């Protein structure tokens, strides 16, 4: 079969593929603790379930506006104004099938062949794949523990070229959990303005922040207010990953193009999901965050005090730890030498029945990602299994 050039090099999402494999092993009866995927241990608010069932009973099951029903876009606009201090009108909002589609819409709308998109790494690899699918070039800025996985103004300015079209920021970050403070964003904003960059701010973990308050990128300067596309969604805050509800809020000219694109490619997301989102939007349960924070604190202490891995900086948000594995590279488990993070993950899966994701999937081969959105019981059990595994390294 002669496939198109752009699809030929496309690989499936590494994290989803691994999650599928682990779930198959669990279905076959293996006692594995799955700490791979960005999935939550809580569900949509009850009111969202009820309204969705009513929507079906009342036949709210036909096409809607392809950008999403007006009431939902208005509710999102109000949420962004009241909680994030961002000014986007309902007309500037497109509701899409998850943040994933919202992001693809933006890239497809803005990137021409050869355009560069600056992406700090470690990062979610979907960014890089989508940029390439749209003909763009990911211009990655490599960060590590020394700057708490954040870029500095100097790093940003060094990455800018005449082909730079966009800067992508993801705060708090998947996979590192690092979140930019207001001051750090202000420092970056000078360079962003100087080079007239357009920013995509991917804010999907915005409600899962454990520091004093969350700062949306678009609020730190007048320039950013006008030149930021904010992407967010219901997957992580509300445990609604399967409902597929994300959105982009863009400068109006961009929003109109995104709207045309979506109307031609998918049209509206499920009418029922939209009703569920409208019901959920003001029902975030802060308890969810408290439980995640307890898990983070427990695992952070465990990794640093009782394992050879290290997490120098306490992650500010999301639900991932991203330990550095350098201290175990070159060590052996029952005669098998650990050469990189993929091999460590395979050994952990086969011998400790713990599934975590190798850092290669996030352009960070010296790290592994542990998703800690589980019950505290499972987290404690996972830590015990890891401790037994690490005790056997020689
Ligand atoms: C940074 C980031 N963006 C987007 C997603 C997926 O979001 P959605 O379910 O809204 O497509 C994930 C999920 O793991 C993620 O980590």
- Helix coverage percent: 40-55%
| Class per helix and strand makeup | alpha/beta
Estimate nothing, just give the exact number of structural domains. 2
Output mean pLDDT.
96
How many beta strands in the DSSP annotation? 14
List keywords for this structure.
394 residues, alpha/beta, Aspartate Aminotransferase, domain 1, Aspartate Aminotransferase, domain 2, 2 domains, seven-stranded mixed β-sheet, 14 helices, 42% helix, globular, binds pyridoxal-5'-phosphate, transaminase activity, Aminotransferase, pyridoxal phosphate, pyridoxal phosphate binding
Structure description:
By secondary structure, the chain is of the alpha/beta class. It is globular and about 60 Å long. It has a seven-stranded mixed sheet with strand order 2-8-7-6-5-3-4, with helices on both faces. The protein has a three-stranded antiparallel sheet with strand order 9-14-13, covered by helices on one side. It has a two-stranded parallel ribbon with strand order 1-12. Strand 6 (198-202), helix 9 and strand 7 (228-233) form a beta-alpha-beta unit. Helices cover 42% and strands 14% of the residues. It has helices at 5-8, 14-27, 46-57, 70-84, 98-110, 125-133, 153-159, 182-194, 222-227, 252-265, 271-280, 286-306, 341-352, 376-391, and strands at residues 33-34, 93-96, 116-121, 137-142, 164-170, 198-202, 228-233, 246-249, 320-321, 332-333, 336-337, 354-355, 357-358, 368-371. It has 14 helices and 14 strands. It has two domains: 5-43 and 286-391, Aspartate Aminotransferase, domain 1, CATH 3.90.1150; 59-280, Type I PLP-dependent aspartate aminotransferase-like (Major domain) (Aspartate Aminotransferase, domain 2). The protein starts with a helix and ends with a helix. The chain binds pyridoxal-5'-phosphate.
